[in-house]
Amino acid sequence: MKSICIGIAAAVLLTAAPALAQQVTLGKRGGTVFVWKDGDAMSEGMNLIQAGVHKSNPMMVMRLISCMVEPGTKAIISDAGFATHTILVIDGEFSGCRGDVVMEDVAW
Asked: What is the pTM assigned to this prediction?
């Protein structure tokens, strides 16, 4: 019985692993993609942008961003969410950059 449970657990882990790190292309909407440091930074940054703070003091928003990448940049999704995804950039100048992007910026 124990070996059956171990076999089932191994099968589940092996089949679920690819879904945890799916390669995608960023920039589905076109234009520069902001990779925010985390979900809280994204929320704060969006609030600042909506308030127009980025026009008078862009550094308040820039400090919340991990990197900005061009459309077509490849990334791996490490945590897929409902409205945002946590990603790791895997090519280009900012390879290794990690953070959150809005779902609309991800092309599957």
From this structure: 0.79
